[in-house]
Amino acid sequence: MGAAKNILSSTQESGKTVFEDFKQHCLGTRVDTRTTSLNIIRKAYPDYHVTEVDESRVSLIEYAEAGKAIAILDVEGEAFNATRWWRPVGERIEKKLHPGKLDDDFRFARFQYIWEGKEFVVYLVRWKDMLESPNKVFFVVSDGNVIDGHCINTDTLLLSAGKWTSQLHEEIFVFDGGHWDKSKELWRAVQGSSWDDCILDLEMKRNIQEDVQGFFNSHDLYTEFAVPWKRGIIFHGVPGNGKTVSIRAIINSLNSRPDQIPSLYVKSFDTCQGEQYAIRQIFLQARKSAPCLLIFEDLDSLVIDEVRSYFLNEVDGLESNDGILMIGSTNHLDRLDPAIAKRPSRFDRKYHFKLPVEEERSAYAEYWRKKLLKNTTVEFPTVLCDIIAKLTEGFSFAYLKELFVMTLLTIARGAKAEDFEFVEAEDLEAPEGEASANGVSEALCGKIKEQAEKSKLDTEKDESKKSKMVMPAVEIPEHLGSNILLRVIKHQIRILHSEMDNTKEDQWPSSKESMSSPFGSFQDQFTRPMRRRRRRC
């Protein structure tokens, strides 16, 4: 560490000069801050070698934070600029218990940097030019051997730190706002996701798994037959039916391979430099990361007419996309240009995520039953799975999840079976003075009749409510009549039906498309507003 101390201690005045000169540069009209900063540091360190490197390519501070080196901030004279910010520490409940951590977002700083017995002085300089993305640059000062204008010690450090920076460390690449970031949050969000969480048609699930894993297992096969090693898949269908859950399972399964396959997730093309710049940056990173998975969220809203040709050129242009598997998701396949949706060699396979049929709804109920096996509060016999499947005709997986979540929360809050009476059609016809089979009193029955008649009149006045969702009539075994889980589920189904009926029918492109589905206009409940395109500068 002695050499580093010698550089640092013998150049304290130089460090102050660099900081003051940089501040003066920022006070006036800034021209070429990168070159100006380099010249300022070289002038302050005439006896040492200075190397400039972009933080995005070689992240020296993160490299040190990972335990690969030591970076000590030079705080003498407070010769640095930084914004102090707070961040939570821990997961879930731990965040509430922990006071958090304070960090610095540096605009200018100097560090004593120690790596494998070699010592350096590292300057971190950050600035932003108008209509450009922020610049973050390291200037590495070293007294090592210089050959052909390059410092051997510095280059050795940069090679090691650069290789580490290019790799993912419990992270997923996310493109948003015109640049790539490594997201630990998204990586943590997909941990634990598996194909067991995806209640899909078994054949479709198997085909997706074989498509994805088979692609990354078949490099030699593609080469043998001189076939470009690239592939594209489209997941389409109304929201809430497993597209996102399947993508999470794919990401986690690829990360669990012995040869970990990185995932790159594209949120938007929005950037001050324009969508073409964004598309170019996306494919440059994908080619550099290959073999990799490249995910486009809401493909139909990303690839608009103005950038379609440029996007297609990147997909199948002159540059090699070997090793890139693309997955594009969309809720509106009809809005995708045929050049994307119907042209093989771009997106070769399309998987339709439909509303779950009764068998799949039963499997989803079984999925929740297994999650509650250790719970002593809820009685969830196997026979209920088929009953729930019959009661939830027309539900997406998203609505099924909401049904179970709200049901369990209601029970957890202390609800009792007698709070939720089953009022069937025959109960309304019970003779005066007699209680219904489910224990509905004469007064309650009369009140229900009044409400039903009023509801009928309101319905006749409102043409838009003629197609109200109706809970299917399902025979309930006598021994389950007082089951609180089933009673609350039926109650929540009625609430969700009301929510579904309030969704406007004109959200879907045309009535013909709704008629093509056995669920008719009920599909409209699953649409969501198109994301507004915006530029962030």
Automatic annotation (TrEMBL):
GO biological process, one term: ribosome biogenesis
Highest taxon of source: Eukaryota
Gene Ontology MF annotations: ATP binding; ATP hydrolysis activity; preribosome binding; RNA binding
Keyword flag Kinase: no
The UniProt record lists the keyword Glycoprotein: no
GO cellular component: nucleus
InterPro entries per UniProt: AAA+_ATPase (IPR003593), AAA_ATPase_domain (IPR050168), ATPase_AAA_core (IPR003959), P-loop_NTPase (IPR027417)
SMART domains: AAA (SM00382)
Chain segments annotated as coiled-coil in the UniProt record: none
SUPFAM superfamilies from the UniProt entry: P-loop containing nucleoside triphosphate hydrolases
Region Disordered, annotated ranges: 501-537
Keywords: Hydrolase
Biased composition (Polar residues): 508-526
Domain AAA+ ATPase span(s) in chain numbering: 229-357
Protein name in UniProt: P-loop containing nucleoside triphosphate hydrolase protein
Species name: Zopfia rhizophila CBS 207.26
